[in-house]
C-alpha cells in the first residue's frame, strides 16, 4: 500500500527557493516544518513523525556528515525540493516550464502575470521575488502550474511539462556540466520530458513584436515574445496578451532601482554570466545614453569565472567605469589563480579596476562619483548587499558645487528632487519635523553659494511638463528655460524668442524677472503658483502680485527670499503674424549672438551675468557721454541703463585673472571659475575689487545680479 505523505520537513528552509516551495506545500495541505543552519541548526530530532525530508541539491550531495541528513537517508525519506515539486506538488496539474540559460525568472513572472490577468488563477514558482506577490511564488486554485526550470544539476528533469519555453542555451554551470555538449544533452532530456501535446516554444517561434514594455532591454523584448507565443497557444486574445505584458513591472534583482541619493541612482541586478552583464548594461545605457554608468561586478565563483574568462573581454562596452569586486566563492575547491585585478585586465576596458573589498569600491565611488551618474551593481552572491551599502554611503555626499553653474559651494546634508506638488509637500513636512532649514534651487545659475556646509534640506523641483493652451503656455518649474522658449517658437507664439539661451529653469525665471534684448518675463507672465512654506499652502500670484522690477521680484526681496517655492507658471503670449521674419530666425540669431558673447557654463563654470546694469539719471548720463564717446545707454522708465560690462571693460578687467578665478575673455560682465578650482571667497574678492575699481573711476556702484547664498 502506497504511503500517504502528510508531514514534511525542509532543511535550509530560509533559502529563497526552499521557502517558496515550503509555503506552497503548506497552502496545498501538507503539514510543514523546517530548520536552517543559521538559526536553530540541524538535528535528527527534527525528523520525528516526518514522512519526507526535503533538501536542496547542495545539501543532498555535499552535506554528507550532517546528522539530520544521515538519519533521513537511513529512513529513505530524503528528496530534493525539485523532486518534491515534480512528484507531489505538480501532480495532476497542467505544467508550464520555463527554461534556458538567461531570462528564466523574468519570463516565468511574465507567464504568471498573463495567466493571473486572464482569470486562470495559476500556481507559480520562480527564483526571484515578485513585488506584487511579495514572494517568489503564487498560490492559485486553477489547473496551471508555472515553474522556472533550472538546468543546474539536471534539476529540471524532475518536471514533466505539457508546455515548455526555452529562451536560449549557452554554456554555464561549469561546476556541473563539463562542456556545452553535456549541457545540450541535458536540455534534450528536458524536451523529452514533455507530455500531452508536447508544446515547445523557442526563439525561432518568435513573432518579433515590439512591445511598449515597462522593463528595459532587447532581452526582455525576446522574453515577452516567448510569452506572446504561449498566450496564443492558450487562446488568449492578442489584446489581452499585449496589455498584460506592457503592464508587467518586473521582478526583484533585475535592473531593480533600489534607491537614489543626491541624484545618483543605484540599481541591483542578478547578472553574473558575461552575456547577462552585456544585456543588462545595454538595456540601461540605451535608456540613459548621456549618463555615466558605473558597472560594479561580483564575479560568481572561481570555477565559473575561469570557464567563462574570455567572455569578460567584450561585455563592458556600455559601461563608463568598471569595478570588479571580490569573487564570490560558490561551490569552489580552487581559485585557478584568478583575482579581481586579473578579471579587470581581461575586460580590456579603458577604465576598469579590480579591488578586494567593498570598502575599496565605496572609496573609489565617493571620490569620483558625480550627481546624475548611475551605479549598476551585478552579481548572484553578496552583490545585493553591496548595492545597499553603496546607496547608504552616498548620503550626504553632495555639495552646492555639484548643483551650481559656478561650481562652488559647501556640502549639503539633505538633497531631494521632487516631481510634483505631493512630493514637494512631503519633503517640506520632513524638513519641518526635523527643524531643518530649506533652500530651493533651480538650474543653479544666478547664485553664488558660500563654502559653508548647509545643515538643511535642498529641494529641486524637477517636474517638467509643458502644456500649450491657445496663446497660453503652462510650464512646471523644472522645465529648462530654453526648452520653454523653443516650444513657444515652435508653436509660433511671440514673446519669449529674445530670451533664448538664458540658463536656468522656469521656476527661477520670475524670481530674477529675467530679460534680454527688450523682453522681460513680467511682460508675458499671466500667473504663477507657489508653495508658501511658512503657512503650508499653495498660492496663486497674478502678475501684479509679483511686484516685478529690474531683475527683481517679491520673491527676491530679503523678507521673502526662500519662503516660496514656485511650482508652475502660466505665460500669455501672442500669435506671431509677420510672414517675412520668422520667429525661429530671431531665436537662431539670439542664440548665435549669445554663444559669441557669453560663456557656456557647461564648458566654463560661471553664474551668468554677475552684475546688474546700473541705472543713472540724465545728469550722470550727460557727464559720462562727455568722457566716453563710445558709451551706450538704454532708456529705462525715467532713467537710463548703462551696460555694466562696458564699465568693467573700460576699467581694464576684461580677461583679467585673480588666482583661480577670472573675468571672461568674451564678456566682462561674466566672472568665471575656469578650472573649477575657485571658491566662494575667490569669486567674491574678484567681484569686490571690480566693484571698488568701477566706483573709483566712474562713481557708479555696481550691484550683483547673482544672489549670495548661505553666507
For this entry, give a set of tags.
alpha/beta, 5 domains, elongated, Rossmann fold, 37 strands, ATP binding, FAD, UDP-N-acetylmuramate dehydrogenase activity, six-stranded mixed beta sheet, ATP-binding, 31% helix, 711 residues, cell cycle, Protein-Tyrosine Phosphatase, Chain A, UDP-N-acetylmuramoyl-L-alanine:D-glutamate ligase
Describe this structure in words.
This protein is an alpha/beta fold. The protein has five domains: 7-81, NAD(P)-binding Rossmann-like Domain (Rossmann fold, 3-Layer(aba) Sandwich); 90-246, 3-Layer(aba) Sandwich (UDP-N-acetylmuramoyl-L-alanine:D-glutamate ligase); 256-395, Mur ligase, C-terminal domain (Protein-Tyrosine Phosphatase, Chain A), CATH 3.90.190; 466-597, 2-Layer Sandwich (Uridine Diphospho-n-acetylenolpyruvylglucosamine Reductase, domain 3), CATH 3.30.465; 615-709, Uridine Diphospho-n-acetylenolpyruvylglucosamine Reductase, domain 1 (Alpha-Beta Complex), CATH 3.90.78.10. The chain has 21 helices and 37 strands. The strands form ten sheets. The chain has a six-stranded mixed β-sheet with strand order 7-6-8-5-9-10, with helices on both faces. A six-stranded mixed β-sheet has the order 11-12-16-13-14-15, with helices on both faces. It has a five-stranded antiparallel β-sheet with strand order 22-23-29-27-28, covered by helices on one side. Helix 5 (104-117) packs across helix 7, helix 5 crosses helix 8 and helix 12 (358-368) runs parallel beside helix 13 (383-393). The protein is elongated and about 115 Å long. The mean pLDDT is 92.
Amino acid at each position: 500500500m502506497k504511503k500517504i505523505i502528510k508531514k514534511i520537513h525542509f532543511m535550509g528552509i530560509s533559502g529563497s527557493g526552499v521557502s517558496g516551495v515550503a509555503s506552497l506545500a503548506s497552502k496545498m495541505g501538507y503539514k510543514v516544518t523546517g530548520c536552517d543552519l543559521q538559526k536553530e541548526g540541524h538535528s535528527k530530532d527534527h525528523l520525528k513523525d516526518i514522512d519526507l525530508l526535503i533538501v536542496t541539491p547542495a545539501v543532498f550531495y555535499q552535506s554528507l556528515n550532517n546528522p539530520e541528513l544521515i538519519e533521513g537517508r537511513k529512513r529513505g525519506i530524503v528528496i530534493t525540493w525539485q523532486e518534491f515539486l515534480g512528484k507531489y506538488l505538480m501532480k495532476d496539474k497542467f505544467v508550464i516550464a520555463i527554461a534556458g540559460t538567461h531570462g528564466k525568472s523574468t519570463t516565468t513572472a511574465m507567464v504568471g502575470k498573463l495567466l493571473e490577468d486572464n482569470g486562470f488563477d495559476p500556481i507559480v514558482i520562480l527564483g526571484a521575488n515578485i513585488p506584487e506577490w511579495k514572494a517568489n511564488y503564487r498560490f492559485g486554485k486553477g489547473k496551471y502550474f508555472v515553474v522556472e526550470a533550472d538546468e543546474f544539476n539536471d534539476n529540471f528533469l524532475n518536471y514533466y511539462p505539457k508546455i515548455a519555453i526555452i529562451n536560449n542555451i549557452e554554456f554555464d554551470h561549469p561546476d556541473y556540466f563539463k562542456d556545452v555538449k553535456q549541457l545540450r544533452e541535458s536540455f534534450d532530456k528536458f524536451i523529452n520530458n514533455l507530455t500531452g501535446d508536447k508544446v515547445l516554444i523557442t526563439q525561432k517561434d518568435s513573432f518579433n513584436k515590439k512591445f511598449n514594455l515597462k522593463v528595459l532591454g532587447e532581452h526582455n523584448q525576446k522574453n515577452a515574445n516567448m510569452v506572446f507565443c504561449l498566450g496564443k497557444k492558450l487562446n488568449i486574445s492578442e489584446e489581452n496578451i499585449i496589455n498584460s505584458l506592457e503592464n508587467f513591472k518586473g521582478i526583484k534583482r533585475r535592473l531593480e532601482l533600489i534607491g537614489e541619493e543626491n541624484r545618483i541612482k543605484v540599481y541591483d541586478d542578478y547578472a553574473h554570466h558575461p552575456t547577462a552583464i552585456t544585456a543588462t548594461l545595454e538595456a540601461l545605457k540605451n535608456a540613459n545614453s548621456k549618463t555615466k554608468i558605473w558597472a560594479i561586478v561580483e564575479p560568481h565563483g572561481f570555477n565559473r569565472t575561469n570557464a567563462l574568462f574570455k567572455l569578460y573581454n567584450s561585455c563592458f562596452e556600455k559601461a563608463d567605469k568598471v569595478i570588479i569586486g571580490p569573487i564570490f566563492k560558490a561551490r569552489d575547491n580552487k581559485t585557478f589563480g584568478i583575482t579581481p585585478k586579473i578579471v579587470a585586465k581581461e575586460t580590456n576596458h579603458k577604465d576598469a579596476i579590480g579591488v578586494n573589498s567593498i570598502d575599496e569600491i565605496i572609496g573609489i565611488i565617493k571620490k569620483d562619483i558625480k550627481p546624475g551618474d548611475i551605479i549598476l551593481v551585478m552579481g548572484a552572491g553578496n552583490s545585493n548587499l553591496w548595492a545597499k551599502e553603496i546607496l547608504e554611503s552616498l548620503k550626504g555626499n553632495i555639495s552646492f558645487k555639484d548643483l551650481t553653474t559656478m561650481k562652488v559651494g559647501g556640502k549639503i546634508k539633505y538633497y531631494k528632487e521632487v516631481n510634483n506638488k505631493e512630493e514637494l509637500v512631503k519633503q517640506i513636512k520632513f524638513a519641518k519635523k526635523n527643524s531643518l532649514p530649506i533652500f530651493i534651487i533651480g538650474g543653479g545659475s544666478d547664485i553664488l553659494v558660500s563654502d559653508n556646509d548647509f545643515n538643511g534640506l535642498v529641494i529641486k523641483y524637477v517636474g517638467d511638463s509643458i502644456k500649450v493652451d491657445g496663446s497660453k503656455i503652462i510650464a512646471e518649474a523644472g522645465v529648462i528655460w530654453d526648452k520653454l522658449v523653443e516650444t513657444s517658437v515652435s508653436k509660433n507664439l511671440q514673446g519669449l524668442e529674445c530670451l533664448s539661451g538664458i540658463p536656468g529653469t522656469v521656476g527661477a525665471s520670475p524670481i530674477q524677472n529675467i530679460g534680454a534684448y527688450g523682453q522681460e518675463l513680467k511682460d508675458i507672465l499671466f500667473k504663477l503658483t507657489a508653495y508658501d512654506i511658512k503657512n503650508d499652502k499653495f498660492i496663486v500670484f497674478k502678475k501684479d502680485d509679483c511686484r516685478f522690477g529690474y531683475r527683481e521680484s517679491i520673491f527676491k526681496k530679503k523678507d521673502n527670499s526662500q519662503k516660496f517655492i514656485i511650482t508652475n507658471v502660466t505665460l500669455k503670449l501672442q500669435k506671431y503674424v509677420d510672414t517675412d521674419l520668422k520667429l525661429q530666425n530671431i531665436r537662431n540669431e539670439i542664440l548665435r549672438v549669445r554663444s559669441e558673447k557669453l560663456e557656456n557654463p557647461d564648458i566654463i563654470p560661471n553664474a551668468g551675468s554677475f552684475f546688474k546694469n546700473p541705472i543713472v539719471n540724465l545728469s550722470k548720463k550727460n557727464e559720462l557721454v562727455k568722457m566716453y564717446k563710445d558709451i551706450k545707454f538704454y532708456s529705462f522708465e525715467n532713467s537710463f541703463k548703462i551696460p555694466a560690462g562696458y564699465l568693467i571693460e573700460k576699467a581694464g578687467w576684461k580677461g583679467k585673472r585673480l588666482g583661480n578665478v577670472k573675468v571672461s575673455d568674451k564678456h566682462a560682465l561674466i566672472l568665471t571659475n575656469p578650472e573649477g578650482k575657485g571658491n566662494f571667497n575667490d569669486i567674491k574678492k574678484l567681484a569686490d575689487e571690480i566693484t571698488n575699481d568701477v566706483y573709483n573711476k566712474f562713481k557708479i556702484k555696481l550691484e550683483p545680479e547673482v544672489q549670495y547664498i548661505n553666507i
